[in-house]
């Protein structure tokens, strides 16, 4: 493979990993606070729909982003209410969110636009365009690093850089702030937080809302940066792969970035070698290639990452004991 | 202000607290002077922990008043208590294992939105506390990696870091080894010298004698006495704790014990936290006798029962049924049932029944392979229901409805369902834990008569109960456990509650 196509693969790996990364960080916040969230998929989907619809209506990508964030946070609050206030089963609530999102976006999309559930295609200011970082051209003369910077680091939409910033912010907030300390504590032993005079529910709601915002970012990216409008089921299981990435990353921010980039790379390679005959194996069927990331998830989860211990209180509603 | 008129550090006036029908605190009064170590003793369920939880704002009292330094205070949350200078070391530590010591200490008192300044201050303060009180601990260690004694030290540091003047310790020695406990008492004395007030909750009388200035005794939700420690003695406290009540004697035939059925030899159990729960316990139970194990809850009885019933692996020692020592493979609940050792577990809702099942399903648990219940792989609902209906009539279970959900029955009727299920199988050895806990008076009498009938029919019965009265009226021999050991054996006619109370408190009196 020559340098140009290598860079192209890396570039597409970054693009493909962003929705995973957003969902993975969302799961990280939620689970570190003790709320299991398998509704990442559903939240991204409603965000993608809301972003597509709002961008079409307003012609503004930023309006689309805000609509996506709002829709996702609204769904997150439903999950929060059932999981935190009502102490419901978090898996059931998450599944309900996913089903609701899949059904609702398809029905409303069809009712509004009559295009088989998709929102009308948008372009121009209604999409997030690519941003060329300063110096991309000037530095491209430097061997290897120059083209790498120009092709892989530069030239993405605003949302990509926001997602990368979210990794830094997540790491910094968890490690260095009061909120982060309390959040880490509440996912491990909520009773300790309660006896320290801090509201367990308050912390968990905050985490759930953050998860909503991150899923909103991921969904908006799908609809307005990667594609040009909402397509039914466009999340295609990314919310679930993100959960696998979260376990790889052992619920930490920087490893989450690594895991998502790895999955993105697998996806990119799969697309690249589709239909291309490989040495020894010959032509690999498309389906086998597409199954690769999932296969790797299963294999890695089955024991190649060492013990991945989730936050101890994750999934358990907090009830004061008698 | 002179010392004579200094208001008490803590004053509780007419505190009332109900949990459903249970009156956990019944107009409790307590006054604790500043700069003293004040003990609160009582049996499990006497209301000590509830009272302290009210003082720490975990629950709000239904009635009564709390005064801190003479000023009425409303404590509605732990945050309120912390603000008033009250700190608590819980029996189950309120620590986050994955965080470091310093992070645990500052949690909730971080001193700003960013951690770095707070961290520096917490480190300095921990150094000072370590120097002042001899409370040294590695501030960067992960709490989960520390031994239990040090974890408790972190809990105390947490309270002191928040400026606690009044420190509540709930059963602090329950998880400690004796040397750790000794170190803790030394620490409590230095804290008292530094002017702190300590409330020590325990059911161990020797601890009260060793470290407190005054002691209050609780029994069944009431405060029955407050005494100067120097002017009292373990026997007096034991008597106050247990109380005197009319014994409910059951008529029974004279003992006609036969062959040894169950023989426990040098049994020791170490639990998941590496605590020694049962220490070198040996005894036998013969056919036709009831052996009662008395003791304050939490002194190893549960672990002993679980070990015998095959629910927990003994660490050392052997258990023999009918003279045959059980091998590791043979020692499973299922196999024991086959061999005639049946078990009525002490916590019927957790291990005896499935609350969400209809009664007829709960009544078949453990015996679903009985041909009476069905053919081959299938269970026949009709037969199961008919079977339970018969037993419900025989045991007077009310309402006699096999289809009713298990959790809808009262405690006494649930217990009858479990008893009927186990007794039905013609046991050779029956292990019964807390048979009348949460059971109404009428059912108690019925259950007692059933147990006596089994004994008279030649069953070897091991009865574990925290109700002394029950043990004294049913057992032919009484073993008393304290701290995992058997501290004494008595015949019911040759002992009284005072004597047993002393053994339960670990005071080995006359032989």
UniProtKB/TrEMBL annotation, chain A:
Its membrane topology is listed as:
Multi-pass membrane protein
Q: Which residue spans traverse the membrane?
A: 46-79, 91-113, 153-174, 205-224, 230-249, 256-273, 285-305
Q: Does the record bear Membrane in its keywords?
A: yes
The main location class comes to membrane
- From which domain of life does this come? Bacteria
Q: Which UniProt keywords apply?
A: Cell membrane, Membrane, Transmembrane, Transmembrane helix
Q: Does the keyword Transmembrane apply?
A: yes
* Record localization: Cell membrane
* Protein name (database record): ABC-type uncharacterized transport system, permease component
Q: What is the lineage of its organism?
A: Bacteria, Pseudomonadati, Pseudomonadota, Alphaproteobacteria, Hyphomicrobiales
TrEMBL record, chain B:
Return the Pfam families for the record.
ABC_tran (PF00005)
Please give the superkingdom of this protein's source. Bacteria
Q: Enumerate the Gene3D superfamilies for this protein.
A: P-loop containing nucleotide triphosphate hydrolases
Sections of the chain in a coiled coil: none
Question: Keyword set for this entry?
Answer: ATP-binding, Nucleotide-binding
UniProt-listed SUPFAM superfamilies: P-loop containing nucleoside triphosphate hydrolases
CDD domains per the UniProt record, alphabetical: ABC_Carb_Monos_I, ABC_Carb_Monos_II
Q: SMART domains, per this entry?
A: AAA (SM00382)
Q: Where is the ABC transporter domain?
A: 10-245, 262-508
Q: Which family does the similarity line name?
A: Belongs to the ABC transporter superfamily.
Name of the molecule in the record: ABC-type uncharacterized transport system, ATPase component
């Amino acid at each position: 493979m020559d340098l140009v196509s290598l860079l192209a693969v890396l570039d597409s790996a970054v693009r493909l990993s962003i929705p995973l990364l957003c969902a993975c960080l969302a799961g990280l916040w939620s689970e570190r606070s003790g709320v299991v969230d398998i509704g990442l998929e559903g939240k991204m989907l409603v965000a993608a729909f809301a972003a597509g619809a709002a961008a079409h209506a307003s012609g503004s990508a930023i309006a689309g982003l805000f609509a996506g964030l709002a829709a996702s946070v609204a769904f997150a609050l439903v999950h929060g209410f059932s999981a935190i206030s009502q102490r419901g089963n978090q898996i059931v609530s998450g599944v309900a969110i996913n089903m609701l999102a899949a059904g609702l976006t398809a029905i409303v999309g069809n009712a509004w636009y009559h295009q088989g559930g998709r929102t009308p295609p948008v372009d121009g200011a209604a999409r997030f365009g690519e941003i060329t970082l300063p110096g991309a051209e000037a530095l491209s003369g430097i061997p290897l690093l120059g083209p790498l910077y120009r092709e892989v680091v530069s030239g993405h939409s605003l949302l990509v850089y926001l997602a990368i910033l979210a990794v830094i912010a997540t790491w910094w907030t968890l490690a260095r702030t009061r909120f982060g300390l309390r959040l880490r504590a509440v996912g491990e032993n909520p009773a300790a937080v309660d006896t320290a005079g801090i509201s367990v529910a308050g912390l968990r709601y905050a985490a759930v809302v953050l998860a909503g915002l991150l899923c909103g970012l991921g969904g908006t990216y799908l609809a307005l940066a990667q594609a040009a409008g909402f397509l039914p089921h466009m999340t295609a299981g990314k919310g679930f792969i993100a959960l696998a990435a979260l376990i790889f990353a052992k619920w930490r921010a920087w490893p989450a970035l690594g895991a998502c980039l790895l999955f993105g790379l697998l996806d990119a390679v799969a697309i690249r070698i589709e239909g291309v005959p490989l040495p020894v194996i010959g032509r690999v069927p498309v389906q086998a290639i597409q199954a690769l990331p999932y296969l790797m998830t299963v294999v890695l989860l089955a024991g190649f990452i060492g013990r991945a211990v989730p936050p101890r209180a994750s999934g358990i509603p907090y009830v004061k004991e008698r | 202000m002179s010392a004579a008129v200094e208001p008490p550090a803590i004053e509780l006036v007419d505190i009332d607290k109900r949990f459903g029908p249970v009156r956990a605190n019944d107009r409790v009064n307590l006054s604790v002077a500043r700069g003293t170590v004040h003990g609160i003793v009582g049996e499990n369920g006497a209301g000590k922990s509830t009272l302290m939880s009210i003082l720490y704002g975990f629950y709000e009292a239904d009635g009564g008043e709390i005064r801190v330094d003479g000023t009425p205070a409303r404590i509605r949350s732990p945050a309120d208590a912390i603000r008033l200078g009250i700190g608590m070391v819980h029996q189950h530590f309120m620590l986050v294992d994955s965080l470091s010591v310093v992070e645990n200490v500052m949690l909730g008192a971080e001193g700003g939105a960013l951690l770095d300044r707070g961290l520096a201050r917490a480190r300095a303060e921990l150094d000072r506390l370590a120097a002042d009180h001899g409370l040294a601990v590695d501030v960067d260690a992960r709490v989960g990696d520390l031994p239990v004694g040090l974890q408790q030290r972190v809990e105390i540091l947490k309270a002191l870091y928040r400026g606690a003047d009044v420190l509540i310790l709930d059963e602090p020695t329950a998880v400690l080894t004796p040397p750790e406990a000794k170190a803790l008492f030394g620490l409590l004395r230095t804290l008292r010298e530094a002017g702190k007030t300590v409330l020590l909750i325990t059911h161990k009388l020797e601890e009260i004698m060793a470290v407190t200035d005054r002691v209050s005794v609780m029994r069944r939700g009431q405060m029955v006495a407050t005494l100067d420690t120097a002017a009292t003695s373990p026997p007096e406290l034991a008597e106050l704790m247990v109380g005197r009540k009319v014994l409910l004697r059951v008529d029974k035939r004279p003992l006609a014990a036969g062959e040894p059925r169950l023989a426990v030899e040098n049994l020791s159990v170490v639990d998941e936290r590496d605590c020694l729960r049962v220490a070198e316990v040996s005894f036998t139970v013969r056919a036709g006798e009831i052996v009662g194990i008395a003791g304050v809850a939490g002194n190893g009885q549960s672990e002993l029962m679980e070990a015998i019933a095959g629910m927990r692996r003994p660490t050392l020692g052997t258990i023999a049924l009918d003279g045959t020592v059980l091998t590791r493979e043979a020692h499973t609940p299922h196999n024991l049932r086959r061999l005639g050792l049946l078990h009525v577990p002490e916590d019927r809702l957790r291990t005896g029944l499935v609350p969400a099942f209809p009664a007829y399903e709960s009544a078949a648990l453990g015996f679903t392979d009985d041909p009476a219940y069905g053919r081959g792989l299938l269970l026949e609902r009709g037969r199961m229901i008919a079977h339970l209906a018969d037993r419900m009539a025989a045991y007077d279970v009310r309402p006699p409805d096999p289809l009713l959900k298990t959790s809808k029955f009262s405690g006494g009727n649930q217990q009858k369902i479990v008893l009927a299920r186990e007794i039905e199988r013609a046991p050779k050895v029956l292990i019964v834990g807390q048979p009348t806990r949460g059971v109404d008076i009428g059912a108690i009498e019925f259950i007692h008569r059933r147990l006596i009938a089994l004994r008279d029919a030649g069953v070897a019965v091991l009865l574990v109960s925290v109700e002394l009265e029950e043990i004294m009226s049913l057992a032919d021999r009484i073993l008393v456990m304290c701290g995992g050991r058997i501290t004494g054996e008595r015949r019911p006619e040759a002992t009284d509650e005072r004597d047993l109370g002393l053994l339960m408190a670990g005071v080995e009196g006359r032989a």
